Amino acid sequence: MNKIIRLLFFFFFFLGHQIIVRSQSQIEMADDFRGEGKIYVVIMVVLLILAGIFLTLFWFDRRLSQLEKQIGDKK
Amino acid sequence: MKYLIKAYWWKPLTVFLLIYTVIGGFLMPVPRLPILNETIRILHFHVPMWFGMIIMFAFSVFYSLKYLSTKNFIYDLYAEHLVNAGVLFGILGIISGMVWANFTWGEPWSNDPKQNASAISLLIYFALIILRGSLQNDHQRARMGAVYNTFAFAVLIPLIFVLPRMTDSLHPGNGGNPAFGQYDLDSDLRMVFYPAVLGWTLLGFWIATLQIRSVNLQKQLDYE
Q1: Domain edges within chain A
Q2: Cβ atoms B76, B64 nearer than 8 A
Q3: How much is the ipTM here?
Q4: Minimal Cα distance from A68: which residue of B?
Q5: Domain count of chain B?
Q6: pLDDT tens per residue, chain B (224 residues)?
Q7: A30 contacts in B (CB within 8 Å)?
């Protein structure tokens, strides 16, 4: 019994030690940047630019379809 | 290609996939790795450029061979514009790679085998575009383009996939076992990466089909 308690004690000591060590040596990521919610600004800007590109592509697509139809009707 | 030109459903799909790529790529959890830190998210934007390029080049070779066997000019048109879109993706890939390398490897160009090989393969494809532009005769241009395109692809595969793996490379998965092992790409990244590859590739095909359709219209006008 005593042995098991001692083993458990060591196990939890090791676990706690690992958690502390891991959290201290954590690799630096942009966590603060995310925490402040600024990442959403970045996403909004990128999505806006993508939306502009897509609108242009859809516009070209429609224009080409119209021209194809016109030439098809002519024949 | 003929189906893609007629069908419409894959265009909204492209839009959806790329919006998902941006939102997921910036917000989904990523593995915390030293040196790479947050820049690992570039994976969803830089690598799909190369995947898209390879897929478009492969389709282009397929149509080049089809042209050589049928002598139908429409296949040559497909092959030409797929190469153009692929080269655009390659240039974007190499520039985005240099920006990424400047942060992670310390310099934009470190003469990494894969960097050099991809630069060489892009030069080969530039030569193809110049060769096509310099020939006046339609039949000659199409035939030379198709033959050159086939050989260019045959050189591209060992340059990008084989040679960098035979030496030490800074790119993951080179100098040993292939990339996309369980250590290189975890399941969080895969959730965004595969849709990203599909989305960017479809965007390349979209650009190619727009060009093919406009050139086709011009040809029809010329015949009248």
Answers
A1: 2-74
A2: yes
A3: 0.82
A4: B217
A5: 1
A6: 888 888 899 999 999 999 999 999 998 888 887 777 788 889 999 999 999 999 999 999 999 999 999 999 999 999 999 999 999 999 999 999 999 999 888 889 988 888 999 999 999 999 999 999 999 999 999 999 999 999 999 999 999 888 887 777 788 766 555 555 545 667 888 889 999 999 999 999 999 999 999 999 998 888 77
A7: 37-38
